[in-house]
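Exam prep: given the inputs below (a chain plus zinc ion), describe the expected output before reading on.
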Amino acid sequence: MDEAARRGVAVMVHAHGDEGARAAVLAGARSIEHGTYLSEETIGLMQERGTYFVPTYVTMDEMNEEQYDYVLRLRGKYMVPQLEKAIRMAHEAGVRIATGADNYYDPDSINRISIEVEQFVRMGMSNFEALRSATVVAAELLQVDDRTGRLVEGYEADMLLVPANPLEEITALQDGLLVISNGIVAVKRIPFAVTD
Ligand SMILES: [Zn+2]
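Solution:
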């Protein structure tokens, strides 16, 4: 952590256990990934110090899928409910929570940021808070919030068009119709033309 700080590099720490996570928070980690067994005390420290929490819930939940071996599914069975507890506690404590995945995306995988957002809503975030976790908060965590994460003049035009207002229907995020990345159409599933 000291070496990274000397270079101005932020450190993310993958930690399931509370002891390791707590040590990382105290040492100055910028974010804790997973955080499955975070205690109320460590969550309090994260809130005080502004440590971000990236629960990767959907990645963990994916272990419960049938295609995985017994050991992984066993881990999922015990760890996922714990992680949900940590997320609910962190949200209530006002910890900054960002979406993130820790795994590959593939067609058979349920690992999607849109599902992570949906799960955050199920766990008590408002739709607006959950959307912020995937946009503004994620950009802040990655220290790119001076150019993306929100729609502001002069920022990169990163946009996702969905068929309904996600502030009312969070599941609309599952159905990306158009993806614009830095002003360039990256995915287009709608029949009409998009022009500037
Ligand atoms: Zn990990």
